[in-house]
Specification:
By secondary structure, the protein is α/β, with parallel strands linked by helices. It has two domains: about 190 residues, Rossmann fold (3-Layer(aba) Sandwich); about 170 residues, 3-Layer(aba) Sandwich (Rossmann fold), CATH 3.40.50.2000. The chain is about 40% helix and about 20% strand. The strands form two sheets. The chain has an eight-stranded mixed sheet, with helices on both faces. It starts with 5 loop residues before the first strand and ends in a 13-residue tail after the last helix.
Length: about 400
Amino acid sequence: MSTFLHVTLVTETYAPEINGVANTLGRLCEGLRQRGHKVELVRPRQNGEAAPAVPEELMLCRGWPIPGYPGLQWGQTSMHKLLRRWQRRRPDVLYIATEGPLGLAALRAARRLGIAVISGFHTNFPQYTQQYGMGFITRLLTHYLRWFHNRSRFTLVPSVSQKLELERRGFERIELLSRGVDSQLFNPSRRSQALRASWGVGDDEIAVLHVGRLAAEKNLSLLKTCFEALQHSYPQQRLRLVIVGDGPQRNALEQQLPNAVFCGSQRGEVLASHYASGDLFLFPSLTETFGNVVLEALASGLAVVAYDEAAAGQHIRHGHNGALAMPGDAEAFIDAARWLLEDSETLRRVRLNARQHASRQGWNLIIDQFERQLREVCPQEVGLPVKSLS
């Protein structure tokens, strides 16, 4: 096998879009290129985007907006266009990260040409349909996703809980690929007293932080319930709720939480400073395949309260570097947050342990594993067709 691979990554979301999938794919793509691999990206054209400077590395296709998700879109292209492109420059392996029209066209074209395919399960759409009052299509959607992923050589998932859930639903050949965090970027040293002051938080006061997309599937009603419970339990402690992110529920949340600070979407060093300037991190979501923000919060030295699943289940040891609740038990979630504020020494110790743990969760090992998984499905001599699954 030759030293370097020609990898095609197919996705309907990518930076500068702000979400965990786009962040993860950017890291994987950059990591492979740094190792000398050729990475071709196939994705929808973003607003105002010009033709690619290097057409061999980027194929842009048409995008259609996703209802209720401004800024995100489905991608669409014909299988025949992909066939022509890959017949001219055949990739060794495809990584299909999304299961929409673009991912389906790529899967069909790859199977026609006998190109090895690995798929990624990045978004838990069946759980989303329940949150949006469309539970009647959950079974159909699960059937389609199972059909889609079972036609790849294997499917990568980021957490053990997600692997068990998919296997229970009849998905085959599930393998783990976790996520990392840039602990140089997300670092307690970026704490800003000026930023805290702009939130109305003094040195000895507590900034209760939430970072994420403000959408129905994130279980954000628990933010309000939990924060109000903390205020009631600790009337002597001045608390301020700070929410970083944007999405379809922002207007409703602003009305429900008139005293909260809404910072909108942030990225890069500014985002890292927002994390580091907080103290307690509330993450009530129950629909994550992983939840990159959990690792980012831990790396920033925050005490995280979350449900015991996905990233939190993998990286938080209850009472040591964070606090966990059984999934769906809202009262236990609130109790976990209360425990962290019982005394300042508990909060200090948990925050130190959080940073120490997350600082060991870098991206290099994740990208090494991803590279091995890509090589595993390539033919012995790169360039030869592989037998596709029926």
